[in-house]
Amino acid sequence: PAFERRYGCNPDLQKEAIKKFVYPTLKSDFSLLEGYQPSDPSFSPLPCDLAACGAKGDSRYTPEQLQGWKQHTAGKFTELWFEGKQEEGYWGTSHRFILDNPAKFQQFLSEDLSSIVGI
Questions:
Q1: CA distance 30 to 28
Q2: What is the pTM of this model?
Q3: Pick from 87, 82, 116: which is nearest to 102 by CA?
Q4: CA 94 from centroid of its chain's CA atoms
């Protein structure tokens, strides 16, 4: 299926009971995400800082697309790139960096949230 071409062949999703339960939800989620169009294209940028995070080697978006999030903030914009798991024979894609290599992302969140609350 297209999902597997895009995200890799997750062994957990090969079980028919899981597919039957999960696939309809995933299909609805992706249809919504990929077809979303803002109702008011003359939006105002958010009055807060914004960080856009991406995975190095993820071919589903470009650096320019990640940089495009800058237009949505009137505050500080940070662009961050994280390493995804890229081992020979691994079924996943680098897009799964939060699950497969969470330490750097968790470190970023910890530091960012600490600066917000003044810890």
A1: 6
A2: 0.71
A3: 82
A4: 10
DSSP lists the bridge partners of residue 110 as none
List beta partners, residue 81: 54
Provide the CA 92 distance to its chain's centre, in angstroms: 14
For the segment 30-37, the average pLDDT, to the nearest whole number, is 81
Q: How many residues does the chain have?
A: 119
pLDDT tens, residue by residue, 80-110: 999 887 778 877 778 888 888 889 999 999 9
- Amino acid of residue 51: A
The reported pLDDT for the residue numbered 119 is 56
- Whether the pLDDT of residue 1 is over 80: the answer is no
CA 56, 60, 65, 70 torsion: positive or negative?
A: negative
Whether the CB-CB separation of 10 and 91 falls below 8 Å is answered with yes
Beta bridge partners of 77: 50
What φ, ψ does residue 78 adopt, rounded to 5°?
-125, 130
Angle, vertex CA 99, rays to CA 98 and CA 103, nearest 5: 60
Closest CA to 52 of 29, 31, 26, 82: 82
